[in-house]
Amino acid sequence: QVPLVESGGGLVQPGGSLRLSCAASTRIFRSYTIGWYRQDPGKARDLVASISSAGSIYYADAVKGRFTISRDNAKTTVYLQMNRLKPEDTAVYYCHAGFSASEIYEYWGEGTQVTVSS
User: Fold this and answer.
1) What is the DSSP letter of 59?
2) Within the chain, where are the H helices?
């Protein structure tokens, strides 16, 4: 089973909305913090939002009030609802799952392109 499967990227006009989905295996969904990173060409990959298995949520300042991250326990899927999109939100978005114990365990999705342009 593929650990993380992303979907939902695409082209949208400024001010529009998109929803990204990250379907995780049951093992990962139950224990890992799952989040979304984004990356522009030639730049570092930045954390956008994350949600822990206990429901604790983090948002980067750049997306607070516009993006919402949520979990669907029945579908073992994490969603990133992106509203009021701006051209600077354009990037490849990657789903990430991380777990820290005596070691750090992590998985990355393949990435999905989000383009905000008129």
Assistant:
1) E
2) 26-31
